[in-house]
Structures are given as C-alpha cells and as structure tokens.
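Ceramide-1-phosphate transfer protein, pasting as requested.
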Amino acid sequence: MDDLESEFNLKVVLVCFKQCLNEKEEVLLEYYLDGWRGLVRFLNSLGTIFSFISKDVVTKLQIMDQLRSGPQQEHYSSLQAMVAYEVGNQLVDLERRSRHPDSGCRTVLRLHRALHWLQLFLEGVRTSPEDARTSALCTDSYNASLATYHPWIIRRAVTVAFCALPTRKVFLESMNVGSSQQAVEMLDEALPFIERVYNISQKLYAEHALLDLP
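Structure tokens follow.
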C-alpha cells in the first residue's frame, strides 16, 4: 500500500484495522500505518479540503517507516513495544521538543488524534439522516477532537474549507464500495475496529502520561 495517489477503497482500510490487533490486543504498527495510508487516499479523494491533515499524516508515516526500517526496528513491531522501548530508554521529549523531536511516541500520538477526528466524523456520517450536511458533521467532529491542538487561525481556515464537502450521498459513494447504503453498511463493520484500536492506544498513552507530548 505504498502508492498514496491510488484510488481509495473503504474495504481496504477495514481489512487493515481488522488485522491491527493481535490476540494480546497489541496494536501492530504495520497494519496501523497501512490503515492510515488508506485513509490518506480517502482524504486526497476529497480534494484539497483536507490537505492540511493529509500532508502532515504523510510526513508522520515517513518518520514511522524510517524507525521501522532502522537499526532499532525490532522495537517498532507494535505500539506497546515502541512505547516500552522509547519510554524505558528516555527517547521521548516529555515537556518540550529538544533531543528527540520525532520520537515514535510523539509521531503516533499525532496520528492517534487525527484518527479520533475521522472516527467521529465517519460515525456521524453513518448515523445521520440522508439530508444531513457533511460540512456540519465534519466541523462538529473537528471541534470535538483536533481543534483542541490547533491555533485559532488554522481552526478558522479549516472550518471554512469544510463547507466545500459534498452531499452525504456523494460523500458515501466516494468510498468506492457501491451505493451510499452499501457504504453505510461497510462503515457499520469498519468503525468498531477503528474505535477499538483508538481506545487501546488511548489507554496505553494515558497509562504512560504521553497524551500531551509537545
């Protein structure tokens, strides 16, 4: 799943997040990052509206790919292994970015926050009536998640950009799994897996006091 310009398909993302947890409920980074590559395709398919997020996600994916192919790659098979290694070896900047500005813990935290926004947004689309405004759903989800971490000028620009989102029907059809109803059914299946991965990651980061990394 290296080509971030290829066509998005929601089913591919579903498969990745299904495979993301092993029997010990560890978050396997290979599938987590592949799931995000699929979500980047989704963001790109909507035009420039989400470029402020997708560009940042691509940068974070590149950082994680370097860590996962580097000399310490055995510590980056799962989120749990990565946190244990980086925290245990003081490889995380806890108060300000200095010696370890691009630690795996900080990088995945940014992906984790963005995943929460997408999860809330897609859940809103899934459960909303046919005439619901996707721009309002997206804005509400953003305000409940990512907006907390963005300065006012970015928040303002983002909410204006959301106004360009297509109708709910067109939005669902852009997921390339058939009709809008079929897309809703696919979201029914996919979102619990994404939510489970998010919740396990959230708990892990909270236990190690990593939720507010600079």
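Note for the archive: Residues 10-208 form a domain with the Glycolipid transfer protein, GLTP fold (CATH 1.10.3520.10).
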